[in-house]
Write a structure and sequence with these properties.
The complex is a heterodimer of chains A (196) and B (109). Chain A has a domain of 67 residues: Alpha-Beta Plaits (2-Layer Sandwich), CATH 3.30.70.1880. Helices cover 58% and strands 15% of the residues of chain A. By secondary structure, chain A is of the alpha+beta class. With 109 residues, chain B is an all-alpha fold. Chain B has one domain. Chain B has four helices and no strands. In chain B, helix 2 packs antiparallel against helix 3 and helix 2 packs parallel to helix 4. Chain B starts with a helix and ends with a helix. Classes of the chains: A alpha+beta (196), B mainly alpha (109). Chains A and B meet through helix 1 of A and helix 1, helix 2, helix 3 and helix 4 of B.
Chain lengths: 196, 109
C-alpha cells in the first residue's frame, strides 16, 4: 500500500508530450480545486439546513406540549368540580365559580363573543394569485412572543411561503382591538341541557 | 507554479459558480474528494522520489475518485451503510503515509 500515482518512470520525454502532461496535470488539479470548493460549500449549506430542521422539530414539540397543557388545565377544572361536589364547602364553591367564570371569559374571547383590547400583532397575508386584497389577521397577546412564534423556521410563515407562495408581514402593535365577531350559534334541533 | 495556479483556478470556479450538489450525490462527493486528495499527495511524493509520471497521476486521480464513489454507492445498495468509513480510513491512512514520506524526504527526518 504505497502510492498509486508514482508508478514507473519513463514514458514520453519529447517536448510535446511534456506539455500535454502539464496540461493534463493542470486540468486535474483544477478539478480537485473545484471538487474541494464544491464540497466545502455544500457542507456549509448542510449545517444550516440541519439547524433549521432542529428548530422545526422544536415547533412540533411546542405544539404537542401546548395541547397537553390545555388538556391538563381542563382536567384541573374537572377535578375541582368533583372536589367541590364531594365536600360542598362554601369557599370551594366560590373557587369553583371563579374558575368557571375565568373559563367562560376565555371561551367567550376565543369564540369572538366579546370585544377585547390589548397589545398584540397584526399579520398581513399577501397571496400573489389572489385577486382580492391582502388578508389581515389581528391577534392579542404578548407581541414579541407571538411574532417570534409565527416566524419559527418551518412554522406558519415558512410553510405558507413554501406551499402557497403567500408572503406574510408581521407588525407588533401596542394596542390592538378585536370587536366581537360572531354571535352564539342558534340551536335548532336540540338544546344543551342545563347541568346541575 | 502551474500547479498552484490551476488549483486556484479550480477553487475560483467552484466558489464563483457555486454549483449545487444534487442530494443523491451528497454521500459520494466527499469520497471522491478524499480519493482525489490521496492521489495528489501520492503524486507529490512520487515527484520528490523522482518517479512521477503525469499519465499515471491523471489516470489514478480520476479512477481513484470514481472508484471510491462507486464503492460507497455499491455499499449503500448492498445495505452496508458505513462504507464511507472504510473509504475514509483507507484514504486517510494513505494520505498520512504519503505525507510522512514527503516529510522524510524534505527534512530527512
Amino acid at each position: 500500500m504505497t502510492d498509486t500515482s508514482g508508478g514507473a518512470s519513463g514514458g514520453g520525454t519529447t517536448p510535446r508530450s511534456r506539455t500535454r502532461g502539464q496540461i493534463a496535470i493542470a486540468l486535474t488539479l483544477a478539478l480537485l480545486g473545484f471538487l474541494l470548493a464544491t464540497q466545502l460549500r455544500s457542507q456549509q449549506g448542510l449545517a444550516q439546513r440541519l439547524s433549521i430542521e432542529r428548530e422545526s422539530d422544536l415547533g412540533q414539540i411546542l405544539t404537542e406540549l401546548t395541547a397537553r397543557s390545555d388538556q391538563l388545565s381542563s382536567e384541573i377544572v374537572d377535578l375541582r368540580v368533583k372536589l367541590a361536589q364531594a365536600t360542598g364547602s362554601e369557599a370551594q364553591q366560590r373557587t369553583l365559580i371563579t374558575d368557571a367564570r375565568q373559563q367562560l371569559e376565555a371561551l367567550q374571547i376565543l369564540l369572538g363573543l366579546v370585544p377585547v383590547k390589548g397589545p398584540g400583532i397584526q399579520m398581513t397575508f399577501e397571496d400573489p394569485k389572489s385577486t382580492l386584497g391582502p388578508d389581515v389577521l389581528t391577534a392579542i397577546g404578548p407581541a414579541s412572543t407571538l411574532a417570534e412564534a409565527m416566524r419559527i423556521p418551518g412554522g406558519v410563515v415558512d410553510s405558507l411561503a413554501a406551499e402557497a407562495g403567500t408572503s406574510v408581514r408581521i407588525t407588533e402593535v401596542s394596542s390592538a382591538s378585536i370587536l366581537h365577531v360572531s354571535a352564539l350559534p342558534e340551536f335548532v334541533h336540540a338544546r344543551p341541557k342545563t347541568r346541575r | 507554479m502551474l500547479v498552484v495556479l490551476s488549483l486556484l483556478v479550480g477553487i475560483g470556479l467552484g466558489v464563483g459558480l457555486h454549483p449545487v450538489v444534487p442530494p443523491s450525490w451528497a454521500p459520494y462527493l466527499p469520497m471522491a474528494v478524499m480519493a482525489a486528495l490521496d492521489s495528489v499527495f501520492g503524486g507529490l511524493r512520487a515527484r520528490f522520489e523522482g518517479t512521477f509520471n503525469d499519465r499515471v497521476f491523471v489516470i489514478s486521480f480520476l479512477s481513484n475518485a470514481i472508484l471510491a464513489a462507486l464503492l460507497v454507492w455499491a455499499g449503500t445498495r448492498l445495505g452496508v451503510q458505513e462504507m464511507e468509513i472504510a473509504v475514509v480510513v483507507v484514504f486517510g491512512v494513505r494520505i498520512f503515509q504519503n505525507l510522512a514520506a514527503i516529510r522524510r524526504i524534505l527534512f530527512h527526518a
